[in-house]
Amino acid sequence: MLRSRPAFWIAFLTLTSGCAARPQPAPPVTIDVQPAPAARAPEPQAAEDTATGGAVLVWSSEGGGTTWHVAEDGAVLREEPGIVVATRRGEWRWEIRTEDVETSACELALGDVHGPGEGTGQRAHLVLRGAGARQEVITPPDADGSNVIEHRATVIGSVGPYLFIEERTYTYACGAHGFDGAGFVVWDAERGAAVDLLAEVPGVPALQREAAALLDAFEEIPVAARQAQDPPALVKLAPGYAARGWLRMTAQLARGACYACGDGAWSSYSRSAMVPIERLPARLAPWASPPPGVRAFLARTPGAPINGWSRP
Q: Looking at the record's lineage, which domain of life comes first (predicted)?
């Protein structure tokens, strides 16, 4: 079921058939970042008030998020907490907060009434350093009569000014069980608007065939599964970076499954397969290979799990 929201809102895609287990966070990774030599370092200034002109911004989600301002030789000019991306307009910081969402009472199977439960949702902005301009990227969903709702949004990676964001929403309405919904959006910080990057992926039929083969391998009757269902739907793209900084992209494709058969990787009532993308969408081509600063930074900090880089 596809639910449309306004232009800056997220389209929630739910597939009718699997169980949604909550993913567990990966163990923290310690990153030993070597600072730039003292002669190269700028005068100490507040991270909130100044930008490092000409530097490449590299960020990692480890430890709650860190952004490094990196010189062309890979030296770290400074670092700051959180996710910051650079555009021609300046540097934008990702800010997110949790808000209350009003829920409703509901009637249980035996006629008992369950009072309104907990309701939370997240609102996210990109805030321009210095100028204070804001882009509203994520808004909390309406409870739509749910007794319980829990909504969260996560930046899973970035490519230049494009942020890849996943939303998860758990709802309960006094039925036999709750429901986990999932959504995905790519946000262009340069233009301040969402981009339908899924529609720009080349060779989707080939990705669907590969995903179907992977999913069939776990079906008890794979031939029957192929005959009874539509091809897996492309639901998410996840950027990643090789050890030397080259961009790689993975597609997530999902198809319906029974509630108990779901794998929790996307929404309830679905199973998913992850397939590498051989050809990037054309708009991502300028960021396929890393600039010298990123390559040098990774050489200085081998094993650093970067999630994105950007530059003015």
A: Bacteria
